[in-house]
Design goal:
Chain B: Its main location: membrane. Chain B: InterPro entries: ATPase_P-typ_cation-transptr_C, ATPase_P-typ_cation-transptr_N, ATPase_P-typ_cyto_dom_N, ATPase_P-typ_P_site, ATPase_P-typ_TM_dom_sf, ATPase_P-typ_transduc_dom_A_sf, ATPase_P-type_domA, Cation_transp_ATPase_P-type. The complex is a heterodimer of chains A (about 300) and B (about 1000). Chain A has about 300 residues and is of the alpha+beta class. Chain A has 4 helices and 11 strands; from the N terminus they run αββαβββαββαββββ. Chain B folds into 4 domains: about 120 residues, Calcium-transporting ATPase, cytoplasmic transduction domain A, CATH 2.70.150.10; about 170 residues, Rossmann fold (3-Layer(aba) Sandwich), CATH 3.40.50; about 180 residues, Calcium-transporting ATPase, cytoplasmic domain N; about 220 residues, Calcium-transporting ATPase, transmembrane domain, CATH 1.20.1110. In chain B, strands 10, 11, 14, 15, 16, 17, 18, 19 and 20 form a 9-stranded mixed sheet that branches. Chain B is elongated. Helix content of chain B is about 50%, strand content about 15%. The chains are: A alpha+beta (about 300), B alpha+beta (about 1000).
């Protein structure tokens, strides 16, 4: 088979390259004459201008077709996600560790809660209306100002002992900390099917996942299930906060909250706790999504 | 070689410790066998399989992918050490990349091995046997068991099993053509006739054939030490260099790898300076490499080549080396043998001369009648001589075969005459039986005639008929009359002149001329019982009546002139290289068109102008007939000059060694040279040529070993079909590569925009692999089935330095135009999916850090809804799927536009290549399966996509088609314009 000897020395290659970049004989710059470069650049300029135009046109017509009040599809939002405050994430999810005697370890947590609740001061909620009914707050028309819909007021005082008003430390130094559970907003989502959904917190009773709880169980400590105080009463999300009509319709809407206060946390043990939201239409058994319909976290209080 | 040819028998016996009567003892033979090894040629050293395999693993893009895999594992290691949440993604990615390399490597290796196996099975032959005297007994032994000193017996038809010093012969002739190219059988005797062992008559060489007679000899060389063995090892010394297509693919790999690495490094720097973490930057780098490398392409190329190889095998070109498929297409010079390749390799009567007139005979392969005028009584007389004065006979039992295919016992000329007579007269054997032969003198070189005396088949005519044929001048000498229109007329000087003219004319056509004469012996002098004695010649052998001349030639194959003119229009120079006489060579060259009707050689011009050859302006002559003797004395410059200045060249009387010189000369002109050959000593030339073509029927094993291609029917025309296929595959590979490269941009842009605009990742690395190795594979192979756009045989062969497989236009058009369109189409789909699910385009910009943050599970979209990390990830996978689907849809358009490079799709026909549709359906089918079938397997990152998203990119697919039609229209409309130069690839 053939010999095609294209072996060149390095200097030859360099020379060839230099000649390619600028060939003084043919006056070619990188294989083209300068005027040719101008033409080709103009062509590409025009080409890309047209392509950008087409792209812009496509996006423009896309924006014309989408509804600005609610998205066309909610394929991924069948069931709301649940989040916890304070939210300190470690390598394996939420991890809240602190030492009651060392206030540096919990001050950050308290601040997080306090900051979070600033959106729920009466001042922040002044645009919202007081709602009393315990049914869905369905609005088919735009009753609010500027073509908006009304939102129900949720103020932090509804969280009573965990509102930060009576106890600015949210019970952290006492070893009976408050946590706030928030359910994600989903437009036109009707949770609970007429019954207000409620928060329910328990130990994660999985032998492998929660060694501490298992140990407690072994020690015959089953008589001590997790004692929780829920605020508002029963840990429910009142139905009048639902459905949510979207940012454009309800600009001042704020999520209802449930605060949980753990009363009997064993010290110096890492506990795994899960807070689920119980209600029709809310699922918490998605194996892929640890935050759908529930929130799991590890809690360890040292002294 | 030793001086064995000079030694006497007893000296030889002593030297080799053997005995002529008893041979070696088995024990002694075994000893020597153990010492010398078996009597067979060592096959050319093959690359070990494992090396071939490993080469496939590191060749081409594999290195890049290995780098990607290693980076993946490194980042996995780092993440693992940092205790990150899901480090296994990178481990898997690395494994997948490694698997891709290994699988494509195995695939390429398998393809290569398969085509090699075809050859291996082809060259496998029945083991040869040899008749040996050992332990004073005659034994049949496998030829590879022979050892030096063995006494072997050979007879006509045998292949000589080793180099043999002959000690007893009887009418032995050998055909040394596999060694010297000389096809004339040479006689062999026990006499020392020449100092040079190659020339002396008492040595017969390994792998030559004994044509007739018997002989006994002592084995003096075995295996690789034989003359043939030495030539063969010489041939394997000529190195295997890269094929043109290998160079093209390497060029292409460099180009793509260059783009991949420079974009990768550029964006690595950009992402580092944009304060991305080094680890993230490395992951981007992997993505960019994976997006840039067309993982499936090399496998596709291999498949395309092997498809063509299969197609060529059907047309009698067996390709040994896949890449040779394309080499044949870029061939610019074919150096062809004459005998057997251009000609039918059998003597055939071409012309007759009687009644002062030349008649032409039909010389085609399958003649059933002869059209010339057979009404003259002279012809009747001539046909009788032709029939009777002939010792050749058909082998019995072939009555049902066409005459031209029947096997004949007899020499070439007699065979030609026998078949000629059989065609015209029918049943020659019967005619001979009716004209009983009473005496015969066979042809010999001293009297140069053949004579026989017959009774006539006319019961009333008791005369004997004496018929004679032979060298025309000798026959004429013996004649005093000549037959004109059936009447005997005195042979005067005018008639003798006419004979001379005819003889010269026929001879000038390179034909072998025979004269025929007869004489009816007077009944009174030669009665029924007359005792004819051929030794004393008691009958007249002069004053005969001259009847006519017949001339014979080995005629060209009927398909060859067409093939040669095809070569001509395809810009391929055909050079004839033959061992034959220049006149014959020139005549054949003229009749097949290698020398065209109008062109002249220097000698022709000299003759026409009546001036000495030296005075002719050599530039005026387009044709040249070069004698091997002249070639011997030529300098390289002179040879170059001849190759350069003459477009039509015939090398006559050349030795196979000179073939190598000619090939090298052509290669110095920058030509891609194809060489045909059959003999063992053609193998260096076959190796040296860009593509060596061995003859399947006439070729020796060594030639087949050295060649890249085997011509199963030995027909020159098959080479031309091969060239056509080779050119087609080059064009189609261009299309395949253009098709494949296009989507690389659509795969690359997501990474670049992801890094710069910080949007959620539009497409995943795994998804890219599914395009490159899934949906795209069958369509790109389908392009190999595309028909040629125009007559590719009207084009000059490609200039291997300028016409690259992947040229600038191809890369730029695919990358910067169609690729960009595809990217835009895919991004529109991406933004549509996100917008309709809640994330409007404006929200997406700059969102990356929070989007990918595991700690944010209430991520707000454009409508105020809140998303957990997994919900976002799932949406991101939906985006991947949408992007993937868009690329697939647009690749359908890309596939359709790549069917042609110049013609409109409507000219080419959308449905002519059915395989393209298989490609399109497979592409969409695979995409459907991935999306809806495997949409629930999380690891693959596909989701069941809403059906309408399949159509978002359709307008862009149509745009691609329309744009490309416009491009082609302008190319056709304005050839040579700026547009043509920049847009035609």
């Amino acid at each position: 088979m053939a010999t095609l000897n294209e072996k060149k020395t390095c200097s030859e290659r360099m020379e060839n390259f230099r000649r390619f970049v600028w060939n003084p004989e043919t006056k070619l710059f990188m294989g083209r004459s300068l005027i040719n470069w101008v033409w080709i650049s103009l062509y590409y300029l025009a080409f890309y201008v047209v392509m950008s135009g087409l792209f812009a046109l496509s996006i423009y017509s896309l924006m014309r077709t989408v509804n600005l009040y609610e998205p066309d599809y909610q394929d991924q939002l069948k069931s709301p996600g649940v989040t916890l405050r304070p939210d300190v994430y470690g390598d394996r999810g939420l991890q809240i560790y602190y030492n009651v005697s060392d206030n540096k370890t919990w001050e950050g947590l308290v601040t997080t809660l306090r900051t979070f609740l600033t959106a729920y001061t009466p001042a922040a909620q002044r645009l919202n209306v007081n709602c009393t009914s315990n049914t869905y707050f369905i609005q088919d028309t735009f009753d609010g100002p500027n073509k908006t819909k009304l939102s129900c007021k949720f103020t932090s005082d509804m969280l009573q002992n965990c509102s930060g008003i009576t106890d600015p430390t949210f019970g952290f130094p006492d070893g009976k900390p408050c946590f706030i559970i928030k359910m994600n907003r989903i437009i036109k989502f009707f949770p609970g099917n007429g019954t207000a959904p409620r928060v329910d917190c328990t130990y994660v009773v999985s032998v492998r996942a929660n060694r501490a709880a298992f140990l407690l169980y072994e020690q015959g400590d089953e008589s001590r299930p997790l004692e929780v105080d829920y605020y508002p009463v029963n840990g429910t999300f009142n139905l009048h906060y639902f459905p949510y009509y979207g940012k454009k319709a309800q600009p001042s809407y704020s999520n209802p909250l449930v605060a949980v206060k753990f009363l009997n946390i064993t010290r110096n043990v890492e506990l795994k706790i899960v807070c689920k939201i119980i209600g029709a239409g809310i699922t918490f058994d998605n194996v892929h999504d640890p935050y759908e319909g529930k929130v799991e976290f590890k809690l360890k209080i040292e002294d | 070689i030793q001086d064995d040819h000079k030694l006497s028998t007893s000296e030889l016996e002593e030297k080799y410790g053997t005995s002529i009567d008893k041979g070696l003892s088995s024990a002694r033979a075994a000893e020597i066998l153990a010492r010398d090894g078996p009597n067979s040629l060592t096959p050319p050293k093959a690359t070990p399989e494992i090396v071939k395999f490993l080469k496939q693993m590191v060749g081409g893009f594999s290195i890049l992918l290995w780098i990607g895999a290693v980076f993946s594992w490194i980042s996995f290691g780092i993440q693992l050490a940092q205790g990150a949440e899901s480090p296994f993604d990178n481990l898997y990615l690395g494994v997948v990349l490694a698997l891709v390399v290994i699988l494509t490597g195995i695939f390429a290796y398998y393809q290569e091995a398969k085509s090699t196996n075809i050859m291996a099975s082809f060259s496998k032959m029945i083991p040869q046997q040899a008749l040996v005297i050992r332990d004073a007994e005659k034994k049949e032994l496998p030829a590879d068991q022979l050892v030096v000193g063995d006494i072997v017996e050979i007879k006509g038809g045998d292949r000589i099993p080793a180099d043999i010093r002959l000690i007893f012969t009887q009418g032995c002739k050998v055909d040394n053509s596999s060694l010297t190219g000389e096809s004339e059988p040479q006689s062999r005797s026990c006499d020392f006739t020449h100092e040079n062992p190659l020339e002396t008559r008492n040595i017969a060489f390994y792998s030559t054939t004994c044509v007739e007679g018997t002989a006994t000899g002592i084995v003096i060389n075995t295996g690789d030490r034989t003359i043939i063995g030495r030539i063969a090892s010489l041939a394997s010394g000529v190195g295997n260099e890269k094929t043109p297509i290998a160079i093209e693919i390497e060029h292409f790999v460099y180009l793509v790898a260059g783009v991949a690495i420079s974009i990768g490094v550029l964006f690595f720097i950009i992402s580092v300076s944009m304060r991305y973490k080094i680890l993230d930057s490395i992951i981007f780098l992997i993505g960019i490499i994976v997006a840039n490398v067309p993982e499936g392409l090399l496998a596709t190329v291999t498949v395309s080549l092997s498809l063509t190889a299969k197609r060529m095998a059907k047309k009698n070109c067996l390709v040994k080396n896949l890449e040779a498929v394309e080499t044949l297409g870029s061939t610019s010079i074919i150096c062809s043998d004459k005998t057997g390749t251009l000609t039918q390799n059998r003597m055939t009567v071409a012309h007759l001369w009687f009644d002062n007139q030349i008649y032409s005979a039909d010389t085609s392969e399958d003649q059933t009648t002869q059209p010339f005028d057979q009404s003259s009584p002279s012809w009747t007389a001539l046909s009788k001589i032709v029939t009777l004065c002939n010792r050749a006979e058909f082998r019995p039992g072939q009555e049902n075969l066409p005459i031209m295919k029947r096997v004949v016992v007899g020499d070439a000329s007699e065979t030609a005459l026998l078949k000629f007579a059989e065609v015209i007269l029918g049943d020659v054997m019967n005619i001979r039986a009716r004209n009983k032969k009473v005496a015969e003198i066979p042809f010999n070189s001293t009297n140069k005639f053949q004579l026989s005396i017959h009774e006539t088949d006319d019961p009333n005519d008791k005369r004997f008929l004496l018929v004679m044929k032979g060298a025309p001048e000798r026959i004429l000498e013996r004649c005093s009359t000549i037959m004109i229109n059936g009447k005997e007329e005195p042979l005067d000087s005018e008639k003798a002149e006419a004979f001379q003219t005819a003889y010269m004319e026929l001879g000038g056509m390179g034909e072998r001329v025979l004269g025929f004469c007869h004489l009816y012996l007077p009944e009174n002098e030669f009665p029924d019982t007359y005792p004819f004695d051929t030794d004393s010649m008691n009958f007249p052998t002069s004053n005969l009546c001259f009847v006519g001349l017949l001339s014979m030639i080995d005629p060209p194959r009927s398909t060859v002139p067409d093939a040669v003119s095809k070569c001509r229009s395809a810009g391929i120079k055909v050079i004839m290289v033959t061992g034959d006489h220049p006149i014959t060579a020139k005549a054949i060259a003229k009749s097949v068109g290698i020398i065209s009707a109008t062109s002249e050689t220097v000698e022709d011009i000299a003759k026409r102008l009546n001036i000495p050859v030296e005075q002719v302006n050599r530039r005026e002559a387009t044709a040249a007939v070069v004698n091997g003797m002249e070639l011997k004395d030529m300098s390289l410059q002179q040879l170059d000059e001849i190759l350069c200045n003459h477009s039509e060249i015939v090398f006559a009387r050349t030795s196979p060694q000179q073939k190598l010189i000619i090939v090298e000369g052509c290669q110095r002109q920058g030509a891609v040279v194809a060489v045909t050959g059959d003999g063992v000593n053609d193998s260096p030339a076959l190796k040296k040529a860009d593509i060596g073509i061995a003859m399947g029927i006439a070729g020796s094993d060594a030639a087949k070993n050295a060649a890249d291609m085997v011509l199963l029917d030995d027909n020159f025309a098959s080479i031309v079909t091969g060239v056509e296929e080779g050119r087609l595959i080059f064009d189609n590979l261009k299309k395949t590569i253009a098709y494949t490269l296009t989507k690389n941009i659509a795969e690359l842009c997501p990474f670049l925009i992801y890094i710069i605009a910080s949007i959620p990742m539009p497409i995943g690395t795994i998804t890219i692999l599914f395009i490159d190795l899934g949906t795209d594979i069958i369509p790109s192979v389908a392009l190999a089935y595309e028909k040629a756009e125009s007559d590719i045989m009207n084009r000059r062969p490609r200039n291997k330095r300028k016409d690259r497989l992947v040229n600038e236009q191809l890369a730029v058009y695919s990358y910067l135009q169609i690729g960009i369109m595809q990217s835009v189409g895919a991004f529109v789909t991406y933004f549509t999916v996100y917008a309709e699910q809640g994330f409007l385009p404006s929200t997406l910009l700059g969102v990356r850090v929070n989007w990918e943050n595991n700690a944010i599970n209430d991520f707000e979209d454009s409508y105020g809804q809140e998303w957990t990390k997994y919900q976002r990830m799932y949406l991101q996978w939906t985006g991947y799927t949408a992007f993937f689907v868009s690329i697939t849809i647009q690749q359908v358009a890309d596939l359709i536009i790549r069917k042609t490079r110049r013609n409109s799709i409507f000219q080419q026909g959308l449905f002519r290549n059915k395989v393209i549709w298989v490609g399109i359906f497979s592409q969409i089918g695979i995409a459907l399966i991935l999306t809806y079938g495997l949409g629930h397997v999380t690891a693959l990152n596909f989701t069941p996509l809403r059906f309408q998203y399949w159509f978002v990119a359709v307008p862009f697919a149509i745009l691609i088609w329309v744009y490309d039609e416009v491009r082609k229209l302008f190319i056709r409309r304005y050839p040579g314009s700026w547009w043509d130069k920049n847009m035609y690839y």
